[in-house]
Design brief:
5 domains, six-stranded mixed beta sheet, 17 helices, eleven-stranded mixed beta sheet, about 750 residues, about 25% helix, about 30% strand, Rossmann fold
Length: about 750
Amino acid sequence: MKLTDNEKRDVVKYLEAGKPLPEKYRFLLFDDDREVELTWNGKTNEVTNVVLPFQVIEQIDEPRSDAKFGNQNSLFDFSGRQISGWTNKLIWGDNKLILSSLKNGPLRKEIEAQGGLKLIYIDPPFDVGADFSMDISIGDGEESFTKKPSVIEEIAYRDTWGKGADSFIAMIYERLKLMHGLLAEDGSIYVHCDWRVNSYMRLVLDEIFGKDNFRNEIIWQRSNPHGHVDTKYANIHDTILFYSKSDNYIFNTQYTPADENYIKTFFKLDDGDGRKYRLVTLTASGSGEARYFKGELIAPPKGNHWRWSQIRIDEAMKNNLIVITKNKSIHYKYYLEDNKGTPAQSLFVDKTTGNIQAISKENLDYPTQKPESLIERLIKASSNEDDLVADFFCGSGTTLAVAEKLGRKWIGSDLGKFGIHTSRKRMIGVQRELKKAGKDFRAFEILNVGRYERETFLTTNNDLRAEEKSKQAERKEKEFVKLILSAYKAKPVESFVNVVGKKRDRLVAVGPINTPVSSKLVQDIVKECKEKGITKIDVLGFDYEMGLDFSQYTDQGIDIAFRIIPREVFDRKAVEKGQVKFYDVAFIEAKPIVKGRGNDKEISIELTDFSVFYNQDDSGEIAEALRPGGSKVVVEDGQVVKISKDKKTEEISKEILTKKWSDWIDYWAVDFDFSSRKEIIKIVEDGKEKEVWTGDYIFDNEWQSFRTKKNRNLDLITSPKMATKGKHKIAVKVVDIFGNDTTKVIEVKI
């Protein structure tokens, strides 16, 4: 510490006054070898070390469920379903908590057993003002509407990151530090960004990974040249920053294929069998000995030598690969098929990695979706077959799909439930594609992270002391509950743990503001109801844990209703006017179909009804805002409605687009033996790892039907399944066009 007496007195003065020290003292008081450092308001080197259990809610190995004979490998059972080895993981939740739980929790051992995490690719939502809504097709796909992000997504993407660049950097900094800790020593990371944050991102990565581990700044041309631009150069590229964790990292050179003009110019010759080649001289500069060609000893031209040994020349002569001209000039045939192309450079402008065209087979109409060819180059370059790769902002699942096709293991996560659902459908499609081609593939599972604790997620001022932060969090929670009860027209009540309000003869419980209502919370609510003699209760939540079976709570002597909190609760005018409508979670009806005699019986499930009660947008406001001749699709009281304004008369008309109940369904699946697989989670208690049964079961996906962009058909009756005598618990899962899933368990006696 090099402080003068005056500086020491200055520091004491500031400390006694309780004022922050001037910036210069940070460098005078603390040793810091870094030449350049990125700082922002509230910067801290601390990262979360919370360890939450991962709950497997769905296991998917559907293409193998109907296999007659399994692989002889112990990885599979007699039916061909995977029973051991690494299972790929698709995780729904906040990636900060996911990363922390992966890095510090029991699953870390499984990752290390696979050789560690070799490659991470992320494409975070770097535009803090971006629109995270998306277009969703209805029924046969002739019409679509815009799905807005959930409240949970909005809080994460806008409130947390939407306060400018410093809020975004603070978000990504902590996550990148966790990724660095999780990455294998020979691993690499690719961070996709654009002009908004690439300069900041470079400094953040330099600080975390070390500037000596910077490998490349890749420029990827994401779109074709634009038309006339008056004020600046057209922006048609993104940046991908490539870092390794150490000097010992995986890198396999990739090549860009030769273009058509190059082929036409240089590969003009063929042997009559369609194989194109060009002639390449067999000499190179430098002295060398003569070699035999067709029994004749021929010396190389002066100052040159023959590239090949005599053995290789003899072999090439046998295979007609040597051409000798009249003037004794000697060449060899270099075939187009042997041409790997040009080693890939840091400028990705080749068609191989180009943008996704609207008509592309892989186009899912998902915001920020990247082409598979781009991700393929990165995965091939920085990992090998059977390596583990990850994408913690996986979106539509492009990284996961490419990893599976290339024989890699994978982990994917996303905060958006619709993103998880889109990835689920995509990966089932990849499984089916690989099975049809006779190629290997792995099962994958869908997980929730945590038994959520509300206080973990309440945003507080990090500059406050722990006691003050706790008080602030408590105050915010009370304000939130008060707002929800006001909108629900319920009165607050006290002396309960989970119950916070009362509406007529029903009590009310409210879920967290920015996490889904978990099965653990519902269990706690039911337990409290039984202890207090409560017979009627409404549970309100913005979202519900994926895979939560609502039907299991209907036969416990409690009239429990699950309702969705609408986005409008944050509109004070709507609350004051009593315009906020809460709607029930979806309702499923399904019936079993049993056929056959004696012991040879088969069972199928027919989906007979599905009801939803959603609202999105105010139809009156939409109608007022429409221009003559314009139209917009909204969701109103469980119907998707197209509102149009006549171009001449400006008369408003409404057309219901959801013609039948099945138009609401995007995906449904069945587990024919729901109680066969218990949910066992790994927890750490007193520093020791142990496995416990949660009391829930894993949905073992055995059959499903879903819509894709290209195929809008939906089967409403499953394929038949052989059934033994006795009682069967069959779980039916339906995912609606919003990406919300509802599960129902039906009992069948055969």
